[in-house]
User: Fold this.
Amino acid sequence: MIKKITKVTLCIILVIMAFSLLMAWRLDVFVTINEKKPNSCQAIELDGSAEDIEIDYKNGIAYLSILDRRGLIEKKDVQGSIEKIDLNSMPWKVENVFSGEGLDNFRPHGLSLYGDTLVAINHPKERGIEPESIEMFLISETGVEHIKTLSSSLLESPNDLVLVAEDKLYIGNDSMFNSNISSFEKIQQQLGRPYSTIIFYDGIDMSIAAENLASVSGLNVTKEGYIIASETNAKRIRVLKQLDDGKLEKLGSISLDGSPDNISVLEDKINVAQVASVLSLIQHFVSLQKGEYKPSPSKIESLIFDSNKAKYLKTREVLFLSLGDDISTASVGVQWEDNLLIGSITDDKVYVCKLEE
Assistant:
C-alpha cells in the first residue's frame, strides 16, 4: 500500500514538474536576449503608443494607430487617434488626421490600407461587454474621412485586420475577451490550444473564414495573395489560401522563436514583431499597473517569403533585438527605404533605425 502511494505521489510530482517546465518554456524563462541593433536609431515622440503602423508606399505616408495605452492600463478614460508621417518630407513630423470625430469612442488597434481605403479596429470602453467595431475611412487630398462603422457578434476580440479589396477584409480574433470559452479553456488557450477565428467581410456581411487558430494578433497578405496570420500562442505564422467564397484554407506555417504580433509586407519581405520574452511582457504590464516602469524586450525579424518552399521561408534575419531600454514591447516594424520604423504597445514613441547593408 505504501509503495503504491509512493508511486502515485511520484507520478503527481513528475506531472507537476513537466507542467511547470512547459509553462516556463512558454513564458520564455530560459530565453537569453543577445542584443542586435542598428548603429543609428532615434525616437519620434508621440502622444500615445503606435501599436500598428501602415505605410502607403505609393504616396510615402505612414499611418499610425495612436492610443495612450499606459493610461488604459491605469484605467483612465482615454481616446485615441490616427496620425500620419509624410515620409517624403524631412525631418519627419507627426500629424493628427483623425481624432474620433463623430464617434462616441475611438480606441484604435490594428490598421490596414488598400488604395484610398483605411480601416481600423475600434475597441469599446468595456471590452467583452460592449460590441467591438471596425471603422472605415476614405483618404483624400482633404484628409481622412470616416465613412462607415462595421460591427458583428463574430468580432469577439479583434486584434488585427487586412484589406484585400476596398470593401473586403479579414479580421483576426485573438480570443482574449471571448466570453464563449470557460476558464479551463482559457488556460488551454495559453498553452497553445487554438480557439481563435479569422472573420471575412465581403462588403455586406461577416462570416467565419478560418477556425482553430492559436490567438491571431497579426494579419497581412503576400504579393501572391496568401493570407498570413500571427498565431501568438503557437509561435508561428500561419499561411492560408483565399478561396472564392472568402473562406481560408490552411496550407502550412513558419515557426518562430518568439510570439508574433503585427506583420508588415514589402514585396517578398515579411517583417514580424515578436514578444521575445512573455514573462518580461507580463512583468512590464504588472509594473505599469503599480505606476512603475520595467521595460520588456523588443524584436523585429525579417523573413523572405517563398511560396514554392515547403516551409514558405527562403531566409530570415533579426533586424532589431533589444532588452527594451530604447523601445519596449515592440508590436510592429515597417520598412521605408533603409529606415525601420518600430511601434510599441506601450511606449509613446516611434523608434526609427537606419538599416545597414
Notes: The domain at 31-354 is CATH 2.120.10.30 (Neuraminidase).
